[in-house]
Each structure stands twice: as C-alpha cells, then as structure tokens.
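Need tokens for this chain, all 532 residues.
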Amino acid sequence: MIRHWGTWDEIRANFRWNIPARFNIAEACCDSWARDDPDRLALTHVAADGAATTWSYGQLKRASDRLAASFAARGVGPGDRVGVLLEQGPEVLITHFAAQKRGAIVLPLFSLFGPDALSFRLADSGAKLVVTDAGGLAKIDAIRADLPDLAEVYATDPASAPVRNLWDEIEAARPIPPVETGPDDPALLVYTSGTTGPPKGALHAHRVLLGHLPGIECQLERFPQPGDVGWTPADWAWIGGLMDLAMPCLYHGVPLISHRMRKFDPDRAFDLIARHKVRTLFLPPTALKLMRRASVPEAVDIRAINSGGESLGPDLLDWGREVLGAPINEIYGQTECNLVVNTMASAMEVRPGMIGQPVPGHEVAIIDADGHEVPRGETGEIAVKRPDPVMFLGYWNQPEKTAEKFIGDWLKTGDLGMMDADGYVGFVSRDDDVITSAGYRIGPSEIEHCLNGHPDVVMAAVVGVPDALRTEVVKAFVIARDGTASDTLRDALIQRVRDKVSPHVAPRALDFVDSLPLTATGKIMRRSLREG
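Here are the structure tokens for all 532 residues:
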C-alpha cells in the first residue's frame, strides 16, 4: 500500500515495496477479512433481471474452504491448473480462492470462447479441472475427448455424472488446512495473443496482486476511500477486469459488484452504477465512448475511473471531469506486466497525448534495439525493468519466447513510445501486428488459422483497421478457392470465427482478394494490407 501521499514526486520517492515471505491471494482477498469481520460485505451479484444477491467475506471463505477440500479429494494440488469458464459472479471468486488454497494455478477462460480457443488453452496448459456453467459445459463436452489431462469438470448448473455439481460438492466437503505459498509461487495463467503462432500463457505469481496495488491506489485517487464500491464491465477472465479492479477491491475490503453484460449497454450501465452506488470503476475506452452518448442519471455519484487498453482523447477526459464529476485516469500495461504507467489527476498535470508517468515502484524507460535508454523525446520501445512484483514469471512451457521478451533486465513491451523531459510517457504505436479493439488485444494468428481451416479458403490474412469507436476493428483478406467467393461464403467465414474462436475477434469486414503481399520467405506483409 501507498502510505505517503503528496505530490507525484513525493509519492514515488517515498514508496517502498513490502513483499512478505508468505503470501497467498485467497488469504489476502478473502480469509484475512473473514477472520476479522466475517459479516463484512464482499460482493453483490446483480443478475440479468436486476435481482441482487449479497456475499460476505465469511460466506466466500466457507464456500472456498469446502471447494478447496473437494478439489483436494480429486487430486488437485500445488501447480495443477484449474480452469474457470464462467461469467462474473460469486462462483468465479470461490473457484479462484479454492484453487489458490490448494496452491494450484488458476486458468481464467473467457465465457465467449468457442471450442477452438478453449481446446488450445486447456490442452496447452494441461488443465486438470475446469469449473463452468451450462453454456460452457456444452463446449467442454464437445472437445473433452481431445483433452486427456482434463480429469474433472464441475458445473454450477445441474448436469449428469461424471460432471460434478459445484454446490453439492461445496456442501458435502469438510474444510482442510490451506497450502502455504510464497509470493513467487505460481497463481495465475492468463493467455495473451501475439502476432505469430498461437496464444501464449503468461504465468503470474501470487505477488502479481501486490504489484497492481500502487497503481490502483493512485489511479482511483487514494483508493480506498469510505463509501467506495467497485464495478467493471470487463470480464474477470482478462487481466484488466480481474486485477485492475476486482481483486484489489476485495484486498482492500471494498464491496465489489458482479454483473456481466453480454453486450455493453450504456443506459443499463448507468442504471447499475446509480442503483448500487458504484463510485470507483475500471471502464475500457469503448465503454466510456458509448456512455458519453447516454444520459447520466442524477443519482450517479462516481468518485474515480481508471481506463486503458486504448488511447483516451482530451474530449473524453473533459467529459469525465465536467459531466461525471470524476477524473478518468489513464493506465498502461500488458498481460505480462500490467499497470506500470498511469495518470493521477489530483497529483500530476494531465498532458494530452501522454499516458502519464511510471507508477510508484515500477521502473519504466524507452530503449533502443540494444537495450540502451534513448534520449528524452526520442522514439524507442517502452520497457519495464526487472525484478518487479507485477511482472510475469514467464510464458507457459516456452522458455525461448520468455527469453525473447527480455533484453538484459528490460522487459520489452512491443510498444513504441517516447518519454518527455519531465518523465511523461507517450504511446506512439505497436511494434507488431496485435490488434487493439474495444479494449481487447487480438492476435491475428488464431483468426487466420480458423479461416484457413475452411475448405474454400486458400489463404487468409487478418489486420486491424482504424475505427472511431473501437480504435481498431478486425478485417480479413481471403484468397478463395476458384469460383467460391460470394456474400454467402463471406458470412460463413465470419460466423466460423464467431463460433470456433470467439465473437469478440470475428472480422467486421472481409474482402476477397486474388493475392496477398508476401515477403521473400513467404510471410504475410500485414503492414501493406493495413496501408493499402
């Protein structure tokens, strides 16, 4: 925690990491509060119809203790991977905490993933157990024969054996002592999309939560404050939704709202914020852009917002201050090393076009290809220095890719940027082909693989093209088998990506072409497609 507030320079100068010898996310975010004040409100779950159910820290502890015992009875122990294929809700937290009490590694899975995306992540991670709902169970059933490591499936909804009912397991089990963990023991495996090859699993230690805290405390303006309630529409399967708000709220004893919108609705969002007195939020820029078009209810009383994943323009920042009466503080990071640069409106000048300054405790620089810092004002790659509590342990089973991520002690983000004379960091562009759309980082390879699997596709390439609302949208270029290019095939290919990978990565435009620009070695020149 940040203990000395003041000017930004004073906050940074006075900050010191305090990483204990023993640390466990479930202990910090659940059990410690449950022992001191078991009736303290932890979570309010708002269902699709608006009905609200509350959970205390004591209830979360009881449920996760018993689920941990059930996991132990199924052979889940330290280092085993436990998948969580669920939308926002108490079951997500209970499963996270239960797995962490066993020393297992939580594998968050986006509920909209199709069978291809799920099959790869479950197989690559060697997940031993997965917890899901009825919708997810149908997807798991379709691919389970290809997952020899997946020994157990738990469902939150009624299901036939051998699937186990989550709530029955919780009621039948008797608690056992949790496994002790250190701050560097693995806790979380989050898959992130790259430009080449399939997604990579970023493995994080329990300390990743501590690494997020100074940023959250600054971005949400001296968080926590009395009366704070937190909510984000971002799914907890992503590092943003999980660690940019949900877990920090629980760590600090701030009541958390869970509610998942299948499609973001700004009017419903404002209604939820007003009804449940939400004061602190993580809102992706696309959500903010949509909310700016809606009417703000008088009952809305927002204290602070953090936002990142895409650039925020000055108009959006002005709207937050003038209409919502709250600062929107920018954040920067990535799955491998999150929340390392930010703004804090009450402690620093907010400069248009600049993300902000390095968060207390994190050393950020702009480096050249040899790993040397470039002069202020010059463009280079944004990099973060190790060791750093928020930094990943490495890519799952990919030591070569992990090594490529570093040059010396600098973690390379793949983003080009610059730093001005006062230490403000500005984003220039991606140094690769990752697509940033509505807050999601989308790699083209997984989409291209799906398109290339269609019998009428000879070759496909995917890029991001500019979009006023989403920053970028996915566009596909397809060479079709002779005589097959048609609107019907176009619709079928887009639907194929929606069904087999995920709706959020499906192309919003698809052009049939006679050829694709290739390098001498046969690689697709995506830059030519973007510029053409």
